[in-house]
Amino acid sequence: MADSRPPDVVAVVVTTDALPWIEPCLESLAGLPTVVVDNASTDGTLELIRDRFPDVRVIHTENRGLGAAWNRGVRDTESRYVLLMNSDAWLVGDAAARLVAFADRRPQAAMIGPRLLNTDGTLQRSVRAFPTLWRLSTEYLFLRKLAPRSELFNAFYGGDFDHDEVREVDVVMGACMFVRRTAIDQVGLLDENFFIFSEETDWCLRFRQRGWQVIFFPGAECMHVGGATHEGRMYRDNLRGHLRYFDKHHSRKTAERARRLLMVSLRLRSRLFRGTRGRKYGEEADWLASGDVDSLLQR
Question: Are residue 52 and residue 97 in the same domain, yes or no?
Answer without folding.
Answer: yes
